Amino acid sequence: MQCSQHRTAVSHDTVARGTLRRTSCTQCSSSRPRRRPVVQATSSSSSSSNQGVEELPGPRNAFVPGQESESRRQLFNRISPVYDELNDRLSLGQHRVWKRMAVKWAGAAPGQRALDVCCGSGDLALLLAAAVGQGGSVTGLDFAADMLQDASSREAAATADAPWQRSAKVTWVQGDALELPFDDASFDAATMGYGLRNVADIPKALAELRRVLVPGGKAAVLDFNNSSQPLVDSLQGLLLEQVVVPAAASYGLGDEYRYLRPSIKRFPNGREQEALARQVGFRSAVHYEIGFGMMGCLVATK
Ligand SMILES: C[S@@+](CC[C@H](N)C(=O)[O-])C[C@H]1O[C@@H](n2cnc3c(N)ncnc32)[C@H](O)[C@@H]1O
C-alpha cells in the first residue's frame, strides 16, 4: 500500500475490517498521526497552468476534465482533519438529521447488507451499521485514505464508548465510486452523502450504485440542492460565501471550501437527477428537497 500522496491507483483491499492499516511510503516515509496539522493548500485557482480552461474558485484542477478525481481526492485528504467539526458548526448539527433521513429512505433494515459510497469520515456508514444491526453488514467506501482513517478511528471510539450497542461492524474500503469493487447485486441498500456532486462522472456513479444493488434495493443520495428558487439560491450562496468560506478560511482551508458554490451550480437539479437515475436503469427515482430547499436527497429504486 502506498501513501495517500503518492499512490496513483487505489486498491480496494487495503483496509482491514474495522481498522485501517497505517501507510508508510518509500517516497515520503511519512506516518500520519490521528489529528494532523492542517496543511495550507499549495495551489489554487489563481494558477495559470490551465490556460484556455475556465478557471473557477477552488483547488487547482478541481474542474478540469480528466484531472478532477485526483485533485478532489487530495482536497478531501487535506480537509479531513477539520471536516467533522466544520460540518457540525456550519450546519448547526442539521447534517446529522439529513443523514438519518437518508438512511431511512435507503430502507436499511436489520440483517441487511448496506453500502455507503463516498463515506468520508463515516457518518452515514455508522448510521447504517446501527440500522442493520449485528446481524447485518456495512461497507464504507471512499478514495481518500485520510478520510477512511478517521472513519475507522471514529468507529473504534464509538464502540469503546458504547460497547452495548448492537451495530454491525463496518468494512472500510478504499476505492473509486466510478468503479465499485463489488459484485453485481451485493447490497440491499446504499447511501451516498455529499459525494455525487464530487465525482467526475455522475451517470457512471449512479450506474455503479444501481449495479451493486439487489433488485428492489434503494439508493439514497444526499447532497446540496441546486435550487431553482431564486430566494433559496441566493440564501445558499450567501451562507456559503459569507459563513462557510470564512469559517473554513480560519482553518487555512478557504480555497478548499470556495469550490462548493460552483460545484453546486454545476450539479444537476432534482428533476435532472431523477432523469439521470432512470436513464441508468433505476425503476423509480424521486428527489426530495430538505433543509429549506438547500439540501436534496435522491431516492432511487432498482
Ligand atoms: C463531502 S465528503 C462527504 C463525506 C460523507 N459522506 C459525509 O456525508 O460526511 C465527499 C467524499 O467523497 C469522496 N469521493 C469523492 N469522489 C470520490 C470517488 N470518485 N470515489 C470515492 N470517493 C470519492 C471524498 O474523498 C470525500 O470523502
UniProtKB/TrEMBL annotation:
Entry GO CC: chloroplast
Similarity remark: Belongs to the class I-like SAM-binding methyltransferase superfamily. MenG/UbiE family.
Any one GO molecular function term: 2-phytyl-1,4-naphthoquinone methyltransferase activity
Biased composition (Low complexity): 21-31, 38-49
Entry keyword set: Chloroplast, Methyltransferase, Plastid, S-adenosyl-L-methionine, Transferase
Protein name, entry field: 2-phytyl-1,4-beta-naphthoquinone methyltransferase, chloroplastic
Major site of localization recorded for this protein: plastid
Keyword Transmembrane: no
InterPro entries (UniProt xref): MenG (IPR032904), SAM-dependent_MTases_sf (IPR029063), UbiE/COQ5_MeTrFase (IPR004033), UbiE/COQ5_MeTrFase_CS (IPR023576)
Annotated SUPFAM superfamilies: S-adenosyl-L-methionine-dependent methyltransferases
Keyword check for Chloroplast: yes
Swiss-Prot/TrEMBL catalytic activity: demethylphylloquinol + S-adenosyl-L-methionine = phylloquinol + S-adenosyl-L-homocysteine + H(+)
Organism (species): Tetradesmus obliquus (Green alga)
Class of enzymatic activity (EC top level): transferase
Name of the gene: MENG
Localization per Swiss-Prot or TrEMBL: Plastid, Chloroplast
EC code(s) of this entry: 2.1.1.329
PANTHER family: 2-METHOXY-6-POLYPRENYL-1,4-BENZOQUINOL METHYLASE, MITOCHONDRIAL, METHYLTRANSFERASE
Region (Disordered): 21-70
Coiled-coil segments on the chain, per record: none
Pfam families given in the database record: Ubie_methyltran
